[in-house]
Amino acid sequence: MEANRQKRLPLIIGAAAAAVIIIISIVLGVAAGTSKPLQLKTEKSHSSPLPAPGERIEAADDFVLVAQNDDYQLYYYEPRFSLKVVNRKSGVVMESTVSDEKDDGRNNKSWTGYIKSGIVINAIVGTLNTYQVDLVTVPSRIETYAVDNGIYARISFLGDYMFDIGIEVRLDGNELSVRIPDESVKENREDTYISTISVLPFMGYTYLDDEEGYMLVPDGNGALIELDNKEGRYTTGFSGLIYGADDGMTSHSATPVIWGEHETVTEAAAVLAPVFGMAHTEDELAYLGIVESGDERCSIEVVPNGIMVDYNRCFAKFLLRDVYVQPLNQSNSGTVTSVEKDRLRSDLAVRYIFLDGEDADYAGMACAYRDYLLEKGTLTQRDTSYHTRVDFLGTEREEFLMGTKAVTMTTADEAGEILDELGQNGVKNVLSLYKGWQKGGLYDLPVTDFTADGHIGGTAGLDRLISEQAEKGNSIYLYDDALTVNAKTHSTTYNVMKMVNKRTFKSEPKRQVYDLFYYLMPGRSSTNISSLVDKAGKRGITSIAFAGVSEKLFSYSYKGSFYSRTDTMDIYDSALEYADSRCSVILETPNAYLWDRGDAFADMPLDSSDYLYIDREIPFFSIVLKGIVPTYSGYVNFEANKTENFLKMAESGTYPSFYVTAEDSSKLIYTNSSDLYSLEYQSYKDTIADYDAKLGALAQQTQGAYITDHEVLENGLRCVSYSNGTKVYVNYGEAPLTAGGIAVEPLSYAVSEGV
Q1: Spatial separation of the C-alpha atoms in residues 675 and 393, rounded to whole Å
Q2: pLDDT for 12
């Protein structure tokens, strides 16, 4: 918790820079013009004097060298807050704004201002969130001073807006740090607010297909958009709020259903981690962008050419303040548009890690992100031993007379018998999440006590299952959705989340028995987590899997006060830190800020959301995590193309997951789990043994090793390289392929072990 606070403290930039800020606050001098930024005329030598810390960097008609080291140089053009990063070995340049020479002249005034400004603000005036504020079309003044290895600029937007922001840029080795201190952001005109700040929205941009390469999209496990000419085929690019949509701000429309109960649209994958990237593969220069602070309220924008302008660009866009619809009465018959009373209170920071040579690709980005997380301590080494995951459904409920009756799918004794049979078939050391173990069944939420349902054998039966299977090497985790409360099984008078507009957030799935759920207040979720951990621990139960709180992040209101996603993040992080310190924790599809709070991750995606503009899916996050923390797939049972799904697990180093029951799934037809088909263990026992044998053997060959490279060979083979020298070749095609002397059959994989 303390570490989480520390990362959000305002930046301390040293005595000299602090003095500069005081000077800037008193005297703001040079008006930023729109004079033409010239191309770099000469590259100053490494021995050339740089501005001394505290020295004023005067406005100029050309880029000024402001920082350099053995690998990179940083040039700065003040009137447009424009940066150029130069790789000293190759001379390749990445620019943060479109120069006049590269302006194709096809853009209107607004877009011209956008592409030529290093910082672009979207403003709210009154309640209209439609005003663009940039350094070309809006009067402004900038005053810049040198700091160690970079600059600090104070930008004042004038005229109708009257915004001030301070921006610090530092070059540190092959990394560029860009930070807007929270205390530097000022809104000086009444009823005029900053909505979003786009930081270096054109860093590394390319025009149409002038450069070879791609942009990294943090969708699902990872995806790429190629830098080819899209020929105007798309009307939108990728825009994803880091850690998913804010349910405290956003009203959801009903999910389309068929026959009144079956959902027909799969929700898009959330952005699990605050990253994006640009690779110029022919020039062998790339960067990985990491949102270091303000990530809880920031979106990743990855936009191919042809969408408004003919430039490929990717960037971070911070949301400081938003508008929302406020109902005037309980019936919602009248509404008014309101502006959030307070803005995001956090430093806004993006770090760009530059990569060159053979590292200038998506695999290099993934390795760089892994190294970054390990160095920061936000990811730590866990036991990555192989386990096949076999989850059980205990009890559900169906309607009966004036209430409900139990539908028992797998008792504790039956779960034990299944695990014993798997052991006899060679499937050892199984990891299981037991769902629907609690009194009242799967949807009796929240779980506030360690009391097992009598229909599965009660608490004594569950105790016996866990202890006996532990002796046989199998691990049973209690599954807990710590986010949700069922309106029909628990009181919702208190402790349920209210949105920013003070209306209670509702989730209303089209289900048979329970059709109204709420979110718990973060503090209540935290209390319930601690209670379950403590009460289970007293009985020797030290393995729990948490869902809901690992995936969702929202703003909320409580007793007239408003709380941000930052508050929710801190509470969830603290609660799961407590759990992780007292038991073994598995997290379901966790957001990156929680990656250091679990021994394993369940339901990590192997695909992307399949947007039309995506050119290629890649196992980006699998590369980051492999060898550090084990990840488990979604359920094999429900995959339409099981062969392709199996190959993706082999390619990414992900472990398989199955969801089984002792009873036939047809018994669930009148329960909330009616959409769960094909669960019966007898139908999957051979498949489980087959997956365990094959993927277990592969895991042994890569045990303890990181993925160091991932590439698609010319013949179409996927080649995954590990730090121990092992290579895994995956063939998704329908003909045999060969690489490195290794023959790979169609729809199969082969392994070349390291020496």
Answers
A1: 13
A2: 33
Amino acid at the residue 388: T
Q: What are the tokens at 402? A: 């004036």
Task: Flag whether the pTM goes above 0.70.
Answer: yes
* Two structure tokens written together for 614: 């995506």
Annotate 70-98 with DSSP letters as a single string: SSEEEEEEGGGTEEEEEETTT--EEESS-
d(CA 164, CA 474): 59
User: Could you state, in order of their start, the residue ranges of all structural domains in the chain?
Assistant: 1-200
Collect all residues with Cβ–Cβ distance below 8 Å to 395 and sequence separation of at least 6: 406, 407, 408, 409, 436, 441, 442, 453, 455, 456
CA distances from 451 to 291, 433, 525, 535 (A): 42, 16, 18, 9
In this predicted structure, which of 201-205, 259-263, 450-454, 734-738 has the lowest mean pLDDT?
A: 259-263
Q: With cut-offs at 50, 70 and 90, classify the pLDDT of residue 511.
A: confident
Q: Could you tell me if 73 and 67 are in contact, meaning their C-beta atoms sit under 8 angstroms apart?
A: yes
Tell me the two tokens of residue 253: 């429309």
- Cα–Cα distances in angstroms (integers) from residue 7 to residues 274, 292, 293, 434, 604, in the given order: 15, 8, 7, 36, 27
Question: How would residue 3 be classed by pLDDT, with cut points 50, 70 and 90?
Answer: very low
> What gap in Å lies between CA 44 and CA 743, rounded to an integer?
52
Going by the DSSP 8-state scheme, the letter that residue 733 receives in this structure is S
| ω into 446 cis (within 30 of 0) | yes
Extract the tokens encoding 562. Answer: 């408003």
Alpha-carbon distance of 572 to 243, in angstroms, equals 13
Got the DSSP string for 593-648?
Answer: GGTTS-SEEES--SS----TT--EE--HHHHHHTTTS-BEEEEGGG-S-HHHHHHH
Angle at 308 between CA 303 and CA 309, to 5 degrees: 80
Q: Please list the helix, strand and coil fractions of the chain in percent, rounded to the nearest 5, in that order.
A: 20, 35, 45
**What letters, b where the CB count within 10 A reaches 16 and e where it falls short, cover 19-35?**
ebbeebeeebeeebbee
Averaged pLDDT for residues 38-64: 68
Start-to-end CA span in the chain (Å):
44
Between CA 300 and CA 130 the distance in angstroms is 19
Three-state DSSP at 494 gives: coil
Cα distances from 740 to residues 417, 697, 699, 743, in angstroms, run: 45, 21, 21, 8
pLDDT tens per residue, range 335-371 = 889 999 999 999 999 999 999 999 999 999 999 999 9
Residues 6+ apart with CB under 8 A from 144: 56, 57, 76, 78, 151, 152, 153, 154
Q: Which residues pair with 323 in a beta bridge?
A: 339
pLDDT, the chain, mean? 91
Q: Which tokens is 292 given? A: 């270091």
Q: DSSP 3-state assignment of 524?
A: helix
586 with 598: CB under 8 angstroms? yes
Which of 317, 18, 328 lies closest to 195, judged by CA?
317
- Identify the three-state secondary structure at position 275: strand
User: Cα dist. 60→33, 65, 80, 200, 202 in Å?
Assistant: 10, 12, 11, 20, 21
What are the pLDDT digits (tens) for 549-583?
999 999 999 998 999 999 999 999 999 999 999 99
The rounded distance, in Å, linking the Cα atoms of 287 and 359 is 10
The DSSP 8-state label assigned to residue 242 in this structure reads B
Which residue, 54, 320, 1, is CA-closest to 186?
A: 320
Q: What is the C-alpha to C-alpha distance for residues 56 and 396, in angstroms, rounded to an integer? A: 69
Neighbouring C-beta atoms of residue 437, cutoff 10 Å: 31
Phi and psi at residue 581, to the nearest 5°:
-80, -15
Which residues, listed in sequence order, are joined to residue 180 by a DSSP beta bridge? 348
CA dihedral 509, 515, 521, 523 (to 10 degrees): -100
Task: Give the pLDDT confidence score for residue 532 in this predicted structure.
Answer: 97
Share of the chain above pLDDT 90, in %: 85
In the prediction, which pLDDT does 265 show? 40
